[in-house]
Write a structure and sequence with these properties.
This protein has 14 helices and 33 strands. A hairpin with a 2-residue loop joins β3 and β4. The longest helix is centred in the last third of the chain and has 28 residues. The N terminus is likely disordered.
Length: 761
């Protein structure tokens, strides 16, 4: 959680500049980069040329991740084959593997002469106080100084002793030509494959009664992991705190999966390693066998979490520290100035959301009113931070700022440039993004349209894991959050707009253009009314509409009324009264008819904002009633562009045209048509339980709101699980969420507990 201030161990560096335009650059390049080799070559040539890099500089791809339909490629820079620290970017490709954005920037560097090392790594390391037996990693890099120069340096990671006698896990930079120490960064932040290690039991076994320093700390840790560990499949411990911690990490895994859309903190199922029953001593930030100072710590170098017994009473602290692990395994935000404050804010936001999800919402992600006290990050001494109203609390002598007007330009000696206090500005933005409303102290700012806690925290986590770069500032975060919202919900979506509104509200700079009309938060594009055929308008001489015929444009009676009132002709006014009466009768009849046709919904899942033309029953599926125990109890496809508005003379809906693609049920004669239009457009054909978010609704609690997507390409089909609760299986193999897999005619597709054969006629 990094409540400890690191100014005791850091040399003085300059104050960070703020307000720099960091918007992502749009790429017009239409190249299709289907393979890693093609992407690497494109980065080396086209992207290097775009940044006008000299022949001494080069760009390299280092890793790739999937964010919904976007592929995110990490790009790092070298100079004369030497890595350049904090010179990284993220290349974003669309679903067609075409580059569309670049986040971050690269520039030509001017190395400070001489550009060759006069010390080797062993000589440079000898100038540092290394803990006995500590393992130290090293590499030669170009380190950016606060003055903008790049200095050839050695980067070391390991346990280094401070002037106060204790050792810390740090990253240290040493000038490769002078041997002078340049900077130190902490590698620890003091916040289903689990391991709980009882640290106090190992202390008792060693009979430790003195302060620990490495390598003694490592020995106690190793003993705890070997003989006092609770792992997956092992027998329960007789220590209640160990069992409580074990269950807590299980909940953390589930939260990351269902809410954040991640498989553990690295996205690949990394084991969560936790040391419980640790202690802290005043003035010594390393873990101890005794002491009464409250703290918790994430150590990225060891991928481990350290929590005292009383820390289990504040579950948001545990998730806060694991969120630091999400950052260290993803963007690896530098722990100083704005990037460090951003690191802390991300951890606060994820920690608070975890507590709300577990303690308040009982693991439910449906809309729920969140009590005020759940927005507080708690400590034994009282609230530490308040996301709903940051300035209500103080950090030392200063109130927490909640707007960039109050940003504190602290030097790096003071709280690493204000990483804990300035984080509250981004905390305020997160609260507004999730909850909506106005800034509590800046009423002149526009009202933010809240999107809910869980969509907001997923955007933050995905940006921290895949889009932000090491030296990202608040403006970088603004655009990374917006890009995550675009990937998950679409550009111009309610979520995308809320990100920009929230950043505007707290004064984080960045230009954006609101859409003319904010669409509903649907990843799958819905055709606009203007682009669709509409029913023929009624003639004024028509008699009263028949009970089975719903009136066209029934959703716009007020607009028609306003137009009629502009007439000054008395005869027109008489006609108006008659038309309004007839129209009201027709509207009532239409609403009654719609009520009869509308499928039954429970109160908790009743869709909002659905009009009559959105409701269409596929009569080709009507025989499913014979096997209700084995198949979903209601199917309601969302009409495609060609299907909407097709009503026959009797007022009943026409049958859909037979599709060449469909799913044939194994449990009955149910046949699910797949729209040939939707499957080839936008994000494909989506199946799920939430009527307003899918093209085909399967009404069963085992089906997720947006369960899976089927999409056709030029000569093949893919199926993609959308992070469903009960999963999607293809020929008996469970699909990984958001990873499209090829599907062929005749393959078996299992949606939750229902089996279908994919067929192409």
């Amino acid at each position: 959680m990094a409540f400890i201030c690191f100014y005791l161990i850091a040399p003085a560096l300059g104050v960070e500049k703020i307000g720099i335009n960091r918007a992502p650059q749009s790429l017009e390049e239409q190249s299709t980069l289907s393979t890693q080799a093609e992407r690497q070559e494109w980065v080396k040539t086209v992207l290097s040329e775009r940044f006008n890099l000299s022949k001494e500089s080069a760009l390299h791809t280092t890793s790739e991740q999937q964010l919904h339909s976007f592929k995110i490629v990490a790009v790092n820079q070298t100079y004369q084959n030497v890595p350049v620290v904090n010179s990284a970017s993220r290349l974003v490709l669309n679903a067609r593997h075409q580059p569309i954005y670049i986040l971050g920037t690269h520039s030509n560097i001017e190395p400070l002469e001489p550009a060759t090392a006069t010390f080797n790594s062993e000589q440079a390391l000898s100038t540092l106080s290394i803990a006995n037996g500590a393992d130290v990693a090293s590499r030669l890099v170009y380190w950016p100084s606060p003055q903008g120069q790049h200095i050839l340096a050695y980067e070391f990671e390991g346990e280094f002793s401070s002037s106060f006698g204790y050792a810390l896990s740090q990253r240290v930079f040493v000038n490769a030509t002078t041997g002078k120490e340049l900077d130190r960064e902490p590698l620890f932040h003091t916040a289903m494959h689990r391991q709980i290690n009882n640290f106090s039991a190992a202390c008792e076994e060693f009979k430790v009664k003195f302060p620990l320093i490495p390598p003694l700390t490592d020995r106690v840790e190793a003993r705890a992991m070997k003989t006092h560990a609770r792992t997956e499949g092992s027998a329960p411990s007789n220590d209640d705190s160990v069992e409580t911690a074990f269950a807590l990490l299980g909940n953390a895994y589930e939260f990351m999966d269902t809410v954040l859309g991640m498989d553990s903190i690295d996205g690949n199922g990394l084991r969560l390693n936790m040391f419980i029953n640790v202690h802290f001593l005043k003035g010594m930030p390393t873990i101890q066998c005794y002491g009464d100072v409250f703290n918790a710590m994430w150590m990225s170098r060891k991928q481990s979490l350290y929590v005292p017994k009383e820390g289990l009473n504040y579950i948001e602290i545990t998730m806060h520290e694991l969120a630091h692990g999400i950052v260290s395994n993803g963007s690896n935000l530098e722990y100083s100035f704005q990037s460090g404050a951003l690191n802390e804010s991300i951890a606060d936001s994820i920690g608070i959301a975890f507590r709300i999800w577990l303690e308040h919402a009982n693991k439910q992600t449906n809309s729920t009113k969140i009590p005020r006290e759940y927005w507080l990050l708690r400590m034994p001494s009282g609230p530490e931070r308040d996301l709903a109203d940051p300035s209500s609390l103080s950090f030392g002598e200063s109130a927490y700022p909640d707007h960039m007007n109050d940003f504190l330009n602290w030097p790096i000696k003071k709280d690493r440039g204000g990483v804990h206090i300035n984080s509250s500005i981004m905390n305020m933005a997160f609260f507004l993004m999730a909850n909506g409303g106005k800034h509590p102290r800046h009423s002149s700012t526009s009202t933010v349209t809240g999107i809910g806690l869980y969509p907001a925290v997923r955007i933050v986590a995905q940006a921290a894991s895949k889009l932000l770069v090491q030296n990202a500032n608040f403006e970088d975060a603004r655009f990374a959050y917006a890009l995550a919202a675009e990937a998950l919900h679409g550009k111009g979506s309610k979520e995308w707009v809320a990100v920009h509104q929230a950043m505007d509200a707290v004064g984080v700079t960045g230009a954006w253009s609101p859409p003319l009309e904010v669409p509903e938060p649907q990843p799958v594009p819905v055709p606009t009314p203007e682009s669709e055929p509409s029913p023929e308008p009624e003639q004024e001489s028509q008699p009263v509409p028949q009970p089975t015929t719903p009136p066209p444009k029934a959703e716009e009676p007020l607009e028609t009324n306003d137009r009629v009132h502009t007439s000054n002709n008395e005869a027109d006014n008489d006609q108006l009264v008659i038309i309004l009466i007839l129209g009201s009768v027709g509207l009532c009849i239409a609403l009654l008819a719609l009520f009869k046709l509308k499928p039954a919904y429970s109160r908790s899942e009743s869709p909002k904002g659905y009009s009559a033309e959105n409701t269409q029953i596929n009569t080709s599926m009507g025989n499913s009633a014979a096997s209700l125990n084995a198949t979903p109890d209601n199917l309601a496809p969302r009409p495609s562009k060609q299907q909407k508005g097709n009503v026959n003379n009797s007022g009943s809906e026409v049958h859909q045209q037979a599709s060449p693609y469909y799913l044939q049920s194994l449990e009955g004669n149910q046949k699910l048509n797949i729209s040939s239009y939707n499957v080839s457009k936008g994000e494909g054909f989506v199946i799920g339980r939430s009527r307003e978010l899918v093209h085909l609704q399967l009404r069963d609690e085992r089906i997720s709101r947006r369960h899976l997507r089927i999409k056709s390409h030029s000569d093949y089909f893919t199926v993609e699980d959308l992070n469903s609760t009960h999963g999607t299986m293809l020929d008996g193999e469970r699909l990984k969420a958001f990873l499209p897999a090829p599907i062929k005619h005749g393959q078996l597709l299992r949606i939750a507990d229902f089996s279908y054969v994919f067929k192409v006629s």
